[in-house]
């Protein structure tokens, strides 16, 4: 069992750091303290058969329930991390927002988070094989006010339509002696 946990932890840890590297942020450091707490949460989830249990407020957290015959704790850390990271398909760097479709992704790559610990527990039934995975992070991420500074695009020069509109809108308007003045970009003329 110990070797399976070491493999689980290594694969989950490495997958997190691979994704963080894509976003130009520092790799995580492994925390045994966080891993112990994550393992306790994973066991509680397995006993209950649900990921819906109270968490720990001091840490950032991701949870996953993997249900398939071929899953075990050795492969679950990597698989859960991929699921969390794939929420990035729902994330807009131009209009950053936290919601249930993106918050696992943003926690994985949160720039100011330094430490991670992961836990895994299995619940075997007669017809099911459920794996519960928990990742705890410190310091926690997902602060709405700090999204732009902490969720770094894989290509730092994101040039999607929304970011272009955002940049253009902010360049078009300026204040002059308390009055709002719009600059016409195409001709370089000012309008009031």
Automatic annotation (TrEMBL):
<dbReference type="InterPro" id="IPR014044">
    <property type="entry name" value="CAP_dom"/>
</dbReference>
<dbReference type="Pfam" id="PF00188">
    <property type="entry name" value="CAP"/>
</dbReference>
<protein>
    <recommendedName>
        <fullName>SCP domain-containing protein</fullName>
    </recommendedName>
</protein>
<dbReference type="InterPro" id="IPR001283">
    <property type="entry name" value="CRISP-related"/>
</dbReference>
<dbReference type="InterPro" id="IPR034113">
    <property type="entry name" value="SCP_GAPR1-like"/>
</dbReference>
<dbReference type="InterPro" id="IPR035940">
    <property type="entry name" value="CAP_sf"/>
</dbReference>
<feature type="domain" description="SCP">
    <location>
        <begin position="7"/>
        <end position="145"/>
    </location>
</feature>
